[in-house]
Amino acid sequence: MTIIGIAGGTGSGKTTVVRKIAQALPPHYVAVVPLDSYYNDTSHMTEEERQNINFDHPDAFDWKLLIKHINMLRNGESIEQPTYSYILCNRLKETVHVESKPVIIIEGIMTLINKKLRDLMDLKLFVDTDSDERLIRNIRRDVVERGRTVDMVLERYLSVLKPMHEQFIEPTKKYADLIIPQGGENLKGISILCKYIEGLVPEVDINKL
To answer: CA 13, CA 128: separation in Å to the nearest integer?
Structure first.
């Protein structure tokens, strides 16, 4: 089994990179575990308290549960992956059944910040994208998918996203085995990654992206 961690700032293109890697391999070879699914359970909080959660701080994540689930997948066991609602700022009752696969991809802004999680990875990646481009992507995503206004997104970027990125996310570059600039647009970088996976899973023929 190969466990790959993919980190990078919000809006950097991590999901696009993951999708292109998954497309390069047979579907039954890849399981994707999003870090976003492992935000802490906030059922005990009031709605106001939930709205004030800093989603870009390491303390927002349930690292214990995530590490437990990755170990289960590594041991050939299936997991019930939590689901999280950005609208409700809480976990949902529904879970996603995830089977163990030859390639496990963990994707999220702080995938590389936790040492215990890093130690489980065979390959660590950081998707690096210009801050202006990331801001534009955040505006487009949050307005459409999370019900926020442009002013709300800009205020959150300046007060939370930017300082948290500089303090916690950007420094995790030093743990990466491979840095991919330009996110999903960097076909050469993704091609190198796919070649690496091809070497680990020789029966898979990766011809092109």
So the answer is: 8
DSSP H/E element including 144: helix 131-145
Please count the CA atoms within 13 angstroms of the CA of 6 that sit on its side-chain side.
30
Are 54 and 70 spatial neighbours (Cβ–Cβ below 8 Å)?
no
Q: Give the number of other Cβ atoms within 10 Å of residue 88's Cβ.
A: 12
**Contacting residues for 207 by C-beta, under 8 A, at least 6 apart:** none
CA dist 155 to 136, 149, 192, Å? 13, 10, 37
Question: CA 47, CA 49: separation in Å to the nearest integer?
Answer: 5
Residue 164 scores a pLDDT above 80: yes
Q: Tell the burial category of 162 from Cβ atoms under 10 Å away from its Cβ (0-12, 13-18, 19+).
A: middle
Reduced to 3 states (helix: H, G, I; strand: E, B; else coil), residue 163 is helix
- Specify the pTM: 0.83
Q: How confident is the model at residue 7 (pLDDT cuts 50, 70, 90)?
A: very high
Cα gap 93→89, rounded to integer Å: 13
Categorize the per-residue pLDDT at 111 as very low, low, confident or very high, splitting at 50, 70 and 90: very high
Residue 170 identity (one-letter amino acid)? E
H or E element that contains 155: helix 150-156
* CB-based contacts of 153, cutoff 8 Å, min separation 6: 138, 139, 142, 143
Q: Please state the φ and ψ torsions of residue 128, each to the nearest 5 degrees.
A: -115, 115
